[in-house]
Amino acid sequence: MKILTYLILSVAALMVMADVGAQTNNAITTDVVNAIRKGDSESLSKNFYGNIELVLPAKTGVYSKNQAEMVMKDFFNEYPVDHFNIIHEGKKENASFAIGNYDSSNNHFRFTFLTKVQNSKLLIHQLRIEKQDE
Question: How far apart are CA 123 and CA 120, in angstroms?
């Protein structure tokens, strides 16, 4: 009986650990999603690498965190968010990606994030925002 109880508890513990591991393996964090949903460029920039490549409809380049925060602030001001959600995520070795849909009034955008782990923190090293046709 003790062996059966031990076995059941071990399996349950492994399932919980696997679930927690799956949550931390997401390509994009809840903080990033919440920052975008609020149009909060300051909070979003806390998840950027020291230098990040931004590809937007009107601007493209490699920016410092501070510069990238200003670029995203301009984007959020021009296109205030109505709705944002992640539609796909993937991971390969130490890199991951996520794709999301961003709606603003009559404009629809596709966000593509490329992320890497640095010092145990998931950071965005490339953010691509493409305008979607209706």
Answer: 9
Provide the whole-model pTM: 0.78
pLDDT tens track for 24-33: 457 788 999 9
Residues 51-72, buried b or exposed e (16+ Cβ, 10 A)? Answer: ebbbebeeeeeebeeebbbebb
pLDDT digits (tens, 9 = 90+) for 124-134: 999 999 999 86
The model's pLDDT over 81-111, given as tens digits with 9 standing for 90+, comes to 999 999 999 998 778 999 999 999 999 999 9
Which CATH number applies to 2-132: 3.30.465.60, 3.10.450.50, 3.40.50.300, 3.20.20.450? 3.10.450.50
Q: Minimal CA–CA distance to 86: which of 126, 121, 34? A: 34
If we measure between CA atoms, which residue out of 27, 50, 42 comes closest to residue 111?
27
